[in-house]
Design a protein that fits this description.
It contains 24 helices and 24 strands. It is of the alpha+beta class and 673 residues long. A hairpin with a 7-residue loop joins strand 17 and strand 18. The longest helix is centred in the first third of the chain and has 23 residues. Bound molecules: 2-(butylsulfanyl)adenosine (IVH).
Length: 673
């Protein structure tokens, strides 16, 4: 560390770097229009960090180096909010929004309002202060009058400007309020990581954002992906409008949510709410309604506040995705591997647009953790696209007559003994011929990402197994001999039997990796199957591989290797494989060398693709030297988007990532149609 005078050129260079980096942060995180590579950005950041380390006098409160986290704090100082941070009155139905509108029209009489309608963001409200254009204080809402000062944590949020942009003069003091959020995909990713590391997971993105903002070490906060949207500019001005303020916020460098409309009637506001009620899942962040605000600041001031909420705004909420209901029973579902999954049977309850009558309970440990008994009242949550889950037993005294769930001694399907495997949470039915396991294996074999046999879903499989026409996957290929019997079955008929037999016939030509996956070898998912098919190129040589051959492959660990060896040393499985081969199922893969058209490029696939399943495309991308990732980040090269692409597309657009269609993809690999 050098002390003493800082030369003018160093001083100038540090200023230059700060400005440059701030400009790139804004282009990247706010405008989603990056102009330089990550490497170039990192280089500038490193240079600035080195300069500041050498000359501590260069550190300024708006230095982008603070974004990676400053010193940990022991306790957050309490600061006051002036004016207080208000909360919003709620409306739970269009009718309640119309009541709000009538009240407003009465009060404003001859001067009817315009409404600015925007997203009600489901995050954490914060207030940011800027003095002479520099962020000097960030605070949580707290109780509205006082909150915690969390400036170092706020500085780590890349889309929050540390210094205002736009042309000065700025007013010497400015306060901006808005919402800190965690994006849904980042939330999932973080929770997955935490679960893998045995850490507690967060219930939803809002809790994750709130928990993160309260952390004492900004270095850790900096590694948690938070986002920010500004929605209010505290100004002394009597003139102007909310919409103008939003434009001003954008000009000053703040991210402002793009989904807002200016309307003249409450019906238009309600239409906006209806529009988003059905599309909320397509957004990359959570919203829980829309906020209807009177646009004119003069009107706002005339109307004032009632207690802790403004009279000039209302939150029109979406219907809740949580509900309370009773667990009437807990059943055990037997999967293809024999694993027993407890499922809660619920008194049907309408949650967020659908009726929920079952929820998975994963395993016995989950039931113990919830301390759930049959007969308990529970809180059920239905997230964006996930299966309903029980998040807790409802508060209050437990009902009488509830009973604990006990693992039975025998399998509910076949009565065979149940075993718990050392070190696993699951119980298993030990009988390989258990009808539920047989059905599960056939369903898996026929499923879309395996052999893709159309018309062979759960119901059809049940019939075939019940009639003992099918016991193993190999039996499917002799099913044509029983055509007469099938045609005479109730509800099947000539045409559907014909179609089914044809799609079974077609499945004989599936590529090797699908067959490897379809066999249902323990621990061999679609990805591992692709690796195996690629390496061994035939079922025969895979079946002859030793444990050592297998663990020598990158993606294969000892557990998978052991499972593969065990599978092929089982005489029953060997017989099935022989029968499949005899029936004419393709048992070898192509020996063509790998292509290099996509060498080093990364892809994320989203939406439905016409030219094949997601796994097919994955295989083709890796076959050309590319890589498929699961979530969109700034490092991604391409988003391959099919029909109904959902939130990934939105995220990619926000980050300025190149989005390609199926056709463009075909062209990239020289396959133009
Ligand atoms: S305006 C006086 N706008 O809702 C106006 N709030 O119940 C209050 N919120 O604490 C803030 N999205 O956390 C406003 N577009 C939005 C909002 C929003 C979410 C939250 C905010 C606030 C709470 C008020």
């Amino acid at each position: 560390m050098k002390s003493g005078k800082i030369s003018e050129s160093v001083f100038r260079r540090a200023g230059e770097l700060r400005r440059e980096i701030a400009g790139h942060d804004h282009r990247y995180y706010v405008l989603a229009e990056p102009v330089i590579s990550d490497e170039a950005y990192d280089m500038m950041m490193r240079e600035l960090q080195e300069l500041e380390a050498e000359h501590p006098g260069l550190r300024t409160p708006d230095s982008p180096t603070l974004r990676v986290g400053g010193e940990p704090t022991r306790e957050f100082p309490v600061v006051a909010h002036s004016p207080p941070m208000l909360s919003l009155g709620n409306a739970y139905s269009p009718e309640e929004a119309r009541e709000f509108d009538r009240r407003i029209r009465d009060l404003l009489a001859s001067d009817p309002p315009s409404y600015s309608v925007e997203m009600k963001l489901d995050g954490v409200a914060v207030a940011l202060q800027y003095r002479d254009g520099v962020l000097t204080r960030g605070a949580t809402r707290g109780n509205g009058t006082e909150g915690d000062e969390i400036t170092s944590n706020i500085r780590t949020i890349r889309s929050v400007p540390l210094r205002l942009i736009g042309d000065p003069p700025f007013s010497p003091f400015l306060e901006v309020r808005g919402e800190v959020l965690m994006m849904k995909d980042e939330f999932e990713k973080m929770n997955k990581q935490r679960a893998e590391q045995g850490e507690k997971t967060f219930v939803n993105p809002r809790n994750a954002a709130a928990g993160t903002l309260k952390m004492q070490d900004p270095g850790v906060v900096a590694r948690r992906p938070l986002a920010f949207f500004a929605y209010s500019l505290i100004s002394a001005s009597e003139e102007g409008s909310h919409e103008e303020n939003l434009r001003e916020l954008r000009r000053l460098g703040f991210p402002v949510n793009k989904h807002h409309v200016l309307v003249r009637t409450i019906d238009e506001a309600i239409a906006f709410w209806e529009h988003w009620e059905t599309r909320r899942d397509s957004l990359p962040y959570e919203i829980d309604g829309v906020v209807i605000k009177i646009d004119s600041l003069r009107h706002q001031r005339m109307l004032g506040n009632i207690a802790k909420s403004p009279r000039w705004a209302v939150a029109l909420k979406f219907s809740s995705r949580k509900g309370e209901t009773t667990v009437t029973d807990i059943l055990l579902q037997v999967g293809r591997t024999g694993a027993l999954t407890p499922v809660a049977i619920l008194e049907p309850v309408f949650i967020g647009g659908t009726t929920v009558s079952r929820a998975t309970l994963h395993n016995i440990d989950y039931i113990l953790e919830l301390d759930l008994r049959i007969g308990d009242k529970v809180v059920v949550e239905r997230g964006g696209d996930v299966i309903p889950k029980i998040i807790q037993v409802a508060e209050g005294p437990r009902r009488r007559g509830v009973r604990r769930f006990r693992m039975p001694r025998g399998c509910p399907e076949c009565g065979s003994p149940i075993q718990r495997v050392e070190g696993e949470a699951n119980h298993y039915c030990v009988n390989n011929r258990c009808p539920a396991q047989v059905r599960g294996r056939i369903e898996h074999f026929a499923s879309r990402s395996a052999m893709d046999i159309e018309g062979l879903g759960e119901a059809a499989v049940r019939v075939l197994v019940d009639l003992a026409l099918v016991r193993t996957a190999a039996d499917l290929y002799t099913l044509h001999k029983a055509k007469e019997q099938l045609v005479n079955l109730e509800r099947w008929g000539e045409k559907s039997v014909h179609n089914l037999l044809q799609s079974i016939e077609k499945s004989k030509q599936r590529p090797l990796h699908r067959l490897v996956f379809a066999l249902g070898i323990g621990h061999v998912g679609a990805g591992v199957a692709a690796v195996l098919a690629d390496r061994f190129r035939s079922i025969r040589s895979l079946s002859e591989a030793s444990r050592d051959d297998l663990v020598a492959i990158d993606a294969i660990g000892p557990e998978i290797a052991a499972s593969i060896v065990a599978f092929f040393s089982n005489p029953e499985n060997r017989k099935i494989v022989r029968q499949l081969e005899a029936a004419g199922v393709q048992m070898t893969g192509s020996t063509e060398p790998k292509g290099t058209a996509l060498e080093g490029k990364t892809f994320v696939i989203t939406g439905a693709l016409a030219g094949g399943s997601r796994d097919d495309f994955k295989k083709r991308i890796t076959g050309e030297g590319g890589k498929v990732l699961s979530s969109v980040s700034r490092k991604l090269d391409y988003l391959l988007a099919g029909a109904d692409p959902g939130s990934k597309l939105e995220r990619a657009r926000e980050l300025g990532i190149q989005v390609i269609s199926e056709e463009e993809f075909e062209q990239m690999i020289g396959n133009s149609r």
